[in-house]
Amino acid sequence: MTEQWLLADLGGTNTRVGLATPSGLITDSARSYANAEYSGLATLLAAYLTDMGRPIVSALCAGVAGPVRGPAAHLTNHSWFIDSADLTSATGTGRVILINDLQAQGYALDDLAPDSVTPLFAGATAPKGATRLVLGLGTGCNIAVVHDTTTGLLVPPSESGHSSLPACDGDLAALISHLAETHPHRPIECALSGPGLQNIWRFLGGAEATPAKIIEALAAGDRMAGQAIELFAQLLGKAAGDLALTHLPMGGLYLIGGMARAIAPHLQRLGFHDAFTAKGPYASIMRDIPIRLITDDLAALHGCARCLRQSQVTG
Asked: What are phi and psi of 19, to 5 degrees?
């Protein structure tokens, strides 16, 4: 019998779970669960396995939206603490790998269906084996740098969403000063995330509204919503440009996550690419970086499967 693996993609709000074989994700096994309905990942995974008829799993890989320290992790935007020993007890597998959720997205890049990647800005033809960068925008914000090696993909951990917002002027400078009142170290994700869009909306004087409502207001022609999304897009361009200069992802910058999908149709007209490429003598290099949108909600599960497959070969 072919062995089965358990996969989990933990966001700040929901967790996607699925099964895989060494050949890849079993697509119709994927389920989504609201974190608020469970006391922790162990109980959620136990419920999933019960829902699936208690399959025997030989390994587990979980991508966690928060820092991972060896066999343990903590969600940044939720109260869960994840311990590998608890996961072993809940699932019956002794092989547990915890990685950051953006690492999982990075590991997925070579396993995505072509129709789940949408070109946003063409860039130049990527050289073989070029570095790629994944930038996630959802409940939080983070990146993953993807390197091709002779033994497979190498995706180091990162918590770049908590590095500081870039230096700006004008309205963006005023926004960042305002954000510093509640976020003194000015982390990127306090502006570039779902909650970040809400922070921008409040800065402009808007009443409480969800990110979805702000996007809906933009579609309806609301002026303040237009201002909020324009500030978001331009700040994203500046921050993403800084990250791209750090890593030179000539193989492409990939945007992923619910906020990325929501704002992607507006990036061109609201100044994202101008802000992204405004790097003085390096502007031509920036224009050569292709920018794409990943629309596959199961991308991180594909990445967890590849991580397990690679660890099986190299471990």
From this structure: -115, 155
Q: Tell me the whole-structure pTM to 2 decimals.
A: 0.93
Q: Are 248 and 195 members of one domain? A: yes
For the stretch 65-107, pLDDT in tens is 888 988 888 887 788 889 999 999 999 998 999 999 999 999 9
Q: Is residue 112 part of a domain?
A: no
Q: How many domains does the chain have?
A: 2
Q: Which two tokens stand for residue 95?
A: 């092989």
What confidence score (pLDDT) does residue 314 get? Answer: 52
Full domain range(s) for residue 11: 5-107+298-314
Cβ 99 vs Cβ 108: under 8 Å:
no
Do both 50 and 155 map to the same domain?
no
